[in-house]
Structure formats: C-alpha cells, structure tokens
Amino acid sequence: MSAATMTAPVTKPGADEGRIGLRANLRHIGALARRNALQIKQDPESMFDVLLMPIVFILLFTYVFGGAIAGKGNQQGYIQHLVPGMMAMIGMNIAMAAGMGVNEDFRKGVMDRFRTMPIARSSVLIAKIVVELGRMLIATAILLGMGFLMGLEIRGSMLEFAGAIALCTAFGAALMWIFILLGLAVKTPQAVQGMAMIVMMPLQFGSSIYAPPTSMPGWLQGFTEVNPVSTLADAARALMNGQGAVAHPTLVTLGWAVAITAVMMPLAVSKFRKKT
Q1: Per-residue pLDDT tens over the stretch 26-35
Q2: Whether 232 contacts 88, CB under 8 Å
C-alpha cells in the first residue's frame, strides 16, 4: 500500500453537502420522492385520510353547522365561504401527516440508512415534502369536486382560481417544515399528532375558515385578525369569489410562508443531521 493511500483522508458519506451539485441534488430528490410514492402504492390505506377527509368535512360543516352559521336555507352562500377556507385547513392536516411520516421512518431505521448515503441531508426532507404536496393537491381536487357538486361557483377568473390553489400549496409546504421538525424532536408519531392538534385546533377554529369573525367575541376577533390561517383563507376566498381585498392578504400569506420556511427549514435539516 502506498504512502499516499495510507494518508488519504476518509470522507464520511454525505458529510459534505457543499460538494453535491444542484443537478445531483435534484436527482436525489427525484429518486427519494419515487421511493416515497412507491411506499404509498404498497400501502394504499395511507391515502384514506386524503380521499375521505375532504368529503366528510365539507358534508359535516355544510349540513350540520352551515344552517346555524349562515342561516337556514343559505347553504349555497356558506359553500362559497367554506370551501376556500377548507383548502387552507387541508394544508395543515397534510403537514401534520408529513411530521408523523418522518418520525415513523426514523423509528423503522429508514432515515439512518439514508444518512449513510452520499446525498444532501435536505434532499431526504424535500422529497418527503414533494410527495406530501402531491397528496395535498389530490385532497384539494376532491374537496373542489365535492364543492362543485354542492353548488360551488368560481366567480373569479381561472388565473385567480389557480392562484388560490398555488397560495394554499405554498403555505402548506411551509407548514410542513414545522411539523417535520416536530417529528424529528419527539419520540413517537402519537406524540407528533397530540402536540400538533394542540396547535392546530386554536389556529383552525380561531380563524375565518368556518365562520366570519364578526360573529365572534371581540377578544377572539383580535386573534383571528393576526392568525395567518385566517389571512390565507381570506386570500383564497377573495381570489375564488372575485370580490374582496386580494393583494394584502395574499402578500401577507406569502410573507408568512417565506418566513416560516427560512427559519424552519435550516432547523429541520440540522436536527435531521444530528438526530440519534
């Protein structure tokens, strides 16, 4: 054995992400995303939440609570209010599932194998988000399909309609970084779900998703006004209904999405790298 061979430094696989180029990183993300998609194909029951949740929620809130909130016989008007808000809600629920999935993969030892490979650590988490965004779009399509069957009308332009979907998708992707970090920080998927529900319930029900804030007590209206979920629901509602302020809630929602991603993505990647 030559001296050069004996003194050559040993590079730990995946230790230096800076040496992985953009093209290789994209290939890794694509391969990992395909792996996650195949995992869903092998376990189709994991899609039940995506397929059934939008149907159950839109029927429940329209026919059980819609009359009380919007007035008896005004379900049509309530559909116009509810569906854009539920698009925001779907992003939160799918984000929670992303955190639970990452936690489960660690428990099974899958993530430990990924960390021994010469790939960027961020590519593992980004691939997870790509697949979860696909699940989110499927759930949104089912929600909209049910909405159309129940009388939903798109009163804005098709470009505004596409913008509402894109805005909800972008905000949902940002939320996934929060829940992925939570999934990396706690021990079990049940803990992820329990902690996530504590945060999600006030954000969902203390917002304009299901009911106009004007019907709420003054102190709750103040919380609703600063709740980013309300801002997202208001922006999607204005875009789809073709009325109301669009620019301000849209820009505020995008600002939240960028800020959440900028803070949580590095924290999640760092936690993924150091997790034992």
Answers
A1: 888 888 889 8
A2: yes
